[in-house]
Amino acid sequence: MLTVATGNKAVAAAVKQACPSVVAAYPITPQTEIVEQIAEYVTSGELKSQYIPVESEHSAMAACIGAGVTGVRTFTATSSHGLHYMHEMVNWAAGARLPIVMANVNRALGPGWNIWAEHTDAFQERDTGWLQVYVASVQEAYDATLMAFRIAEHESVLLPVMVNLDGFLLSHSMQPLQSVDIGDFIPPIHLPHAIDISDPTSYGTLTGPNDYFRLRWDIERSMRDSVPVIRETQEEFARRFGRKYDFVEEYRCDDAEVVVIAMGTLGKEAEVAVDLLRREGLKAGSMRIRWLRPFPRIDLSGKEVVVIDRDYSFGFGGVIARSLAATEGVTPFSVIAGLGGQEVTYDDIAGFVRGRRPGEELWFGVNGHV
Amino acid sequence: MTEIPREEYILKCTSACAGCSDSLTLRYVLKAAGPETVLVVPACCTSVIQGIYPHTAMNIPVYNVAFAAAAACASGMSAAFQAAGKKANVIVYAGDGGTVDIGIQALSGAFERGTDFLYICYDNEAYGNTGMQRSGATPVGARTTTTPSGKIQVKKDLDGIVAAHNPPYMATACAAYPKDLFSKVQKALSIRGPKFIHVLAPCPPGWRFSSEKSVEMGKLAVRSGMWILYEREFGKVTINGPSKAAMIKPIPLEEYLEPQGRFKGISSEAVAMLRSQAERNAMRLKKEEEGIC
User: Which domain holds residue A88?
Assistant: First the structure.
């Protein structure tokens, strides 16, 4: 069915179709609408879930963990400070191998109070063992949420998945949304280590270095095994519903000499900049990284690279620029832009490409090189 | 006579200290709850006494979870069992640190939401798992590793905080009175909604008394009026027998304090504060039982 929806409503619509048994969540701007919409679905009986209006995000994730270990499907949504308030339990969810799906509406961190888009909130959770996907449209928010359940619950993965959408730019923007009849796209959940009262087990007891080390490796092994599962799920989604997704969305990259790399809505904006630059005669292309974890390998040989980071790791650099320098051996022009919801247009992006200085870092609008 | 089952759900060879009231309490809690039970345990002594992975001394499912997360974790578990149409007792078993301090927000949230579970706080009046640092539940005058000259503040009124949530059932207990503890757990589990039992757990290494005296210490706490056994069912308070007797004729407070190294050299002001807090508690409960307040 074709409708018009916000990113938040699109996530809620996908959750309704995935039908988790338990949803525990706490409101936070700009995610609140997801929680409100799910509460509405549960109240009206459209969604047969137990909805737990917890008193904090730490408890939201704790409740999803407690529910999840009984073997049922769970969901929560958060943003920014909420995500970091639950940080301890974000780690716990992955370590406990629970396929929880969480929508995170990317927002900057205080102080000062800032409710607008930035990726640093979720990037700071990148080492927790969660899979992370970043979307660039309302449609993709819906599609990625549906796929997240199937990927998380796959027997070779059994790790939680975080679906990230840019605060306001997607959470509150109305765009067309084509919903689908999911049929059996998401199979029934089967958690092999679910609590079984007739076969008692202790979970998370004191664990010595050797066993702990092995369990950590097990998370990484599943993270690596998630790569073919994500690929297969995205292909199956395309087969059934006609919309195709990859780890990295490439735009006019085949003959490109310069490639702009960005995530979320900036990755889409970069495509407009590429068209503009092409008209000027520059062989430009763009790549939108969708999966932060598992981090994709990208062939950038023979190309100049401009990376736009809507995030920052203080004392280190833009996370994507530094990551690609490490994994692909490139020397990118690193642009830090869009922090705290700073407006970045396709004209600005074209400007970054025209003024590129490989190996240098630009703070857009702050150190004034553009 | 209350028949206590012979089945054991906490098996031999735990890594508990000698004379541990925590494991004694847990033994009776689980005998009362039976096998259709899941225990949620935050960081506390019980995280350690279960044993080291891949071994466990527990004969029921136990979910160990982060320090502040027990009541919220149990909320999710209770909701999930309800969603799946499964029947199981969900019991949080937490120390005083995980209850009166770091876990109080999750506890309050779960009680306000009417979560169907039983929360048991076994109270050894300090952070036992990390080697006896003060907690909000440490009584005034008690020495801990972070109050080397005795705690200045009085014990936090946890029961008052829980009572403010109007749970259908709440009670105090002590492992020195196992039948009382056993029947309170059974009664709590027969009621729907959030239930609470606060259990005094005398701790030989923490309170510095010899390990064969745990039960005796619990009895001295009750007889001196420092620990009052009572229950509040749907708002109605009943003070239980041993505490009724203690209210008529308590033993001198010093008989409870003197055998404990943690109270060595306690000031007369601190003793007076302990005494007046105990008297205030007794007075308040008596009035409530008589329906005066």
Answer: 2-183+206-241
Which of A22, A70, A204 lies closest to B65 in CB terms?
A204
- 3-class SS of residue A312: coil
> Which has the closest alpha carbon to A274: A257, A290, A291, A289?
A257
Report whether A27 contacts A155 (CB < 8 A).
no
User: What CATH number corresponds to the domain at position A333?
Assistant: 3.40.50.920
Which residues are CB-contacts of B257 (< 8 A; sequence separation ≥ 6)?
B263, B266, B271, B274
- Look at B79 and A69 and tell me if their CB atoms are within 8 Å: no
Q: Does some domain include residue A279? A: yes
Calculate how close chain B gets to A318, using CA atoms only, in Å.
32
Band (pLDDT 50/70/90 cuts) for residue B13 is confident
CB contact (8 A) between residue A56 and residue B66: no
Residue numbers of A between 5 and 34 with CB closer than 8 Å to B: 21-22, 24
- Residues A274 and A128 grouped into a single domain: no
Identity of the residue numbered B127 = Y
- Chain A residues touching B83 at Cβ < 8 A: 21-22, 49-50, 67, 72
List, for chain A, all residue ranges whose pLDDT scores fall below the cut of 70: 368-370
**Which of A291, A154, A140, A296 has the alpha carbon at shortest distance from A229?**
A154
Structural domains of chain B in order of their starting residue, each with its CATH number:
21-290 (3.40.50.970)
- In angstroms, the separation between the Cα of residue B241 and the nearest Cα of chain A is 36
How does pLDDT run across A131-170, given as a tens digit for each residue?
999 999 999 999 999 999 999 999 999 999 999 999 999 9
Mean pLDDT, all residues of chain A = 97
Residues A278 and A221 in one domain: no
Residue A303 lies in a domain: yes
